[in-house]
Amino acid sequence: MEQALRGVGVSHGVAIGQVRHMGTAALEPPATQIPTEEAPREQARAQAAVDAVAADLIARGNLAGGEAQAVLEAQALMAQDPELMADVSRRIAVGSSAERAVYDAFAAYRALLSAAGDYLAGRVADLDDVRNRIVARLMGVPMPGVPDSDEPYVLFARDLAPADTALLDPTLVLGFVTEEGGPTSHSAILARAMGVPAVVALPGATGLAEGRLVAVDGSTGEVLVDPSEEKQAELRKTAAERKAAMAASSGPGQTSDGHKVPLLANVGGPADLPAALEAGAEGVGLFRTEFLFLDDSAKAPSEEKQVEAYRKVLEAFPESRVVVRVLDAGADKPLDFLTPADEPNPALGVRGLRTLLDHPEVLRGQLRALAKAAEGLPVHLEVMAPMVADRLDAKAFAEACREAGLAAKFGAMVEIPSAALRARSILQEVEFLSLGTNDLAQYTFAADRQVGALARLQDPWQPALLDLIAAAADAGRATGKSCGVCGEAASDPLLACVLTGLGVTSLSMGAASIPYVRTALAKYTLAQCRRAAEAARAADTAEEARAAAQQVLSGE
Question: Is 361 in a helix, a strand, or coil?
């Protein structure tokens, strides 16, 4: 009998196939005591396993490229964390085997993160994956990972670690469903980048039996168990109609009455460029530069290395807008040479622009590299600062840009509610705003973006979040300056229409979402988008806001 389950749709498309579960290793080694004289051998085994896992994660990142590479390199740093390794050594010295010492040391650190209740709690899944890989290597058992299968399937898991998601084979993995995670988790972002249908935060996902037939709609979040032949045909027809509509849609983003809404790409490095160009991106709305700094957490990359990487992206979009975000270090992206190791609440501590203002030499080096990279290129370079809180922050960043001789527009990201509420003040210092809706939702609702249990509060349809977006867009309109969205909210086709109605001037997203958004915008007039935005803001819940906007746009 057909059964309908509901999670959070995070990546468009429909997948119909049999359930396959993520494989796990025997993760808890026995608590046996080893003789003191064997401690050096166990120390060497532990270090070798850690180094091998770190190297494997980096290799996977190099294969995956783009955003996935940055995520996996961060995991490699986690594997080799000096404090964790010191704890492993202490445990081996008092009689633990290498595998048991690793298991217990990671468990202790995991407990600290889980209890912290802050941004770092969202890294627990990544930490567990690193631990599992090290322990599996030490115990000689298979690594946790994607199941072996000759036939395509739908992958189910409690959560998907970045190392697994980054290298999913879309010819075999039709889609995936997780019990944990949220719409802005690493796995969700990577799924959208790959174009694989995905649903997260589905209660009981891991309880579905292996081999059961399911239909996954990554747009609606619906998962049908044992769908009828008629329902399967209906879903395939809907998916085919969406695909045909996207194929027929091309050119710049605009409403049906010609209101221009540039559709830009979010990129994590040069490896993301081919997909962005193929999707018809009109430029880059968010160029994340962290990938350069994660190669070596002990020091900043040379200006020469930065220039080379920046120029590749700038060259790919001649005569187009390329918006670069300067280094966003801190919280879930710690760097040994920049970020404090003992912050009680890193998400609310020294991160983003605060970190760079504490280390002006790093900011100056990056701005100089961007200036050199843009020399002689017919590109519209724009540079923005992350985590701007107020006008003083914006002024400090603008002054740093001028001092570096940067011939570019400089702007501020709106990720903190104070920046949205005081956007007009901030625009006295900078030339544009870009809304990072992932962090803006997190800070508005005090809801960690990586915690699946808080998915309701991470929903970009929350009316309070729409109010903040409207406030920033109004400030942009009043000052004659642009206000775009580069958070994952822009990748939702229906929400993209609402954002346009709120006054947002550009939308930036993962390349795979651009055709969906272009197609949706082309169906409606600007007036319809404005009415949908008004209806969404008048609602009390995210679900009601989405339904109200849909009702307006469907003419019901």
Answer: helix
